[in-house]
Amino acid sequence: MEESKSKLTLASQPEILRATQRDEMFQSILNFDFIEVAELFVKYNIITKYEKEIKLVTDSIYFLLTTGRGFMTLGEEYCQIMPRVQSHAYNRSLSKVVQMSARTKLIFYLAAVFFPYIFNKMIVSYYRRKLQKYSLGKIHF
Question: For helices 51-65 and 102-109, what crossing angle results, to 10°?
Fold first, then answer.
């Protein structure tokens, strides 16, 4: 049992970076294809108005198809790295399947996809209000 633990090493920073870049590449391809299909049904000015929401939807789809279903992301698979999970959950016969609890998946989704979207919306709204007050002369920097 100790022998199998020593074979699994932690991923290095370049491997994690490559996996992340690969995932971002596939997410941008999915986003681009989604926009191209949407252009068949909706005017482009509406698509640009909701560009961040479309990115949220496509990132959510990518997450649900990979980690949400219990599979490695395409970046993790490409770099041959495994997400850190409890040792008893690792199944050697299905090496591409990662078993995480629903709570862990939810936390990962919120931290990686949903919170950045909400944070961006809050920051843009805050600066828009500040700019509006500044343009009306109510606030001085």
Answer: 150
